[in-house]
Amino acid sequence: MLRLLGGICVLVFASYGGFYMSGRLKARRDFLRSMAESLTYIESEIEFGHYELKDIFMRIDKASAVYDFFKKCAEGLNKSGIRCVWERSIAECGETIPLKNEDIDVLLQLGAQIGMSDVAGQKTAIRRAVTHLDAFASTADEEY
Questions:
Q1: Reduced to 3 DSSP states, what percent helix, strand and coil does the chain have, rounded to the nearest 5?
Q2: Which of 2, 8, 89, 96: disulfide with 72, CB 3.0–4.6 Å?
Q3: What is the pLDDT of residue 62?
Q4: Is residue 131's pLDDT more than 80?
């Protein structure tokens, strides 16, 4: 009887752990994909729209997994610069979404360049970030 109870406990905890890890991987994958899509949108808005970053950030789709990230960035731009706001938003996202250090590094590098250089420099930084994020999302998809 004790073995049966122990076996059931192991089964329950292993199942819970699997579902928990699966959910974390799915959240990371969805965030990375949404971020790559949103950055592509931001790139085109920077090149053709000539809007301020605050306005571009507020135009991100509300159904997107990164909507809250860009909303925080847009709201924070009134108080401080893009780099500070970007870093703070990444830190807050890292608390809710299980981002790896490599994901955070790519986003921080982008935050250091977006809004700080000319259109060509920003486009290059965004394309580089999208390339890395797509690769990370593919890896997360395989792990999932």
A1: 80, 0, 20
A2: 89
A3: 79
A4: yes
Six token digits for residue 136 = 């990370």
Does the CA dihedral 86-87-93-99 come out positive or negative? Answer: positive
pTM: 0.82
Question: Rounded to an integer, what distance in angstroms lies between the CA atom of residue 104 and that of residue 35?
Answer: 12
Query: Token match 């965004």: residue?
Result: 126
> If you average pLDDT over residues 57-72, what whole number do you get?
83
Provide the residue count of the chain: 144
Asked whether 35 and 97 are in contact (CB, 8 A), the reply is no
Residue with tokens 């999208």: 130
Q: CB count, 10 Å around CB of 5?
A: 9
For residues 47 and 123, the answer to whether their CB atoms sit within 8 Å is yes
